[in-house]
Ribonuclease Z (Oceanicoccus sagamiensis), 346 residues
Amino acid sequence: MKKILIAVVSLLVVVVIGRSLLKVPAVQDRLLEAGTTRIAERGAEPFPESENLRVYICGSASPLGRGQAQACIAVITPEHFFLIDSGAGSTDNLGLMGLPLNRLQGILLTHFHSDHIAEIYEVNLSSWVQGRPKPLTVYGPYGVDKVTNAINSGYSHDRVYRTAHHGEELLPPALGVLEYKTIFPGVIFNNGGLKITAYVAEHPPIHPAVGYRFDYKGRSVVISGDSNVTENTLKIVDGADLLLHDALSLPTTMALKDALAEVGQSRQAKIVLDVTDYHASTESLIELGKKSNVGMVGYYHLVPVPPTALLKDVFLRGAPDNFFLTEDLMWFEFPEDSKEIIINQP
């Protein structure tokens, strides 16, 4: 007992001394130097090259729940880099994953809900600062011009200030202005071996809403945006290696709605009930898996975000082994001429 007491006292002394040392400017400066050096070295590390299709989860959440960024998926090949949506918090994740924003080509919007467009300008600014050589293009269904023009207008002062501060050579003004392209269902991009196909999603009363399929070197990924499961979904996932689909846990959502109503939060209960209209239930996605030949199904844009192991189990209730929950910073690699999917956890 005496030895334990001595050990505890010794530990407390070390903690107190350590805290005192951290207040010494010379010690602070040394730690600051070491920390900033590591940050600089990490930033200078080149993005790992690969000949394969890679997909990154930069935002897996819906507005119901906290702890993860909102909707954002990155698709990268040796020649291409596209984002699908740009929800709140997702730009930080792009930095955490070290993605090469200097070669970002475009943002593909599924629709114009705030949790899918909140950080378009943050992505534009980050990629501009990192040396993107061309204007960033925002792709989307009818109405994308209004969204893009509004962002350009709202941040016009910001662009002027930054160029004036850093100089036109570092931040050319023309590269800070977003461009847009209105897309329609069908093939919207086919270059360098990458084909992108847009398909009609069901997200009433939002219209139009779309999802996207990416095909590259015999591998394929479908990213739904927000949508119920429809015949269009069944067609577009045919032969796909991975489907990343908006997913709603009906048991959790209804339990939340009932709990809110019970304590008199009728407005919030009504809103929670309303979201069941236009997000795919996990039951409908399991049925889709039975009817299709899709390789794997990952739930993203989780409604609501499951913060505990119990709620994650509820989300996956009844799902087969090839179904899983995504989380921020997870990423996938698809080797050419293979059925293998390499899953990398954060």
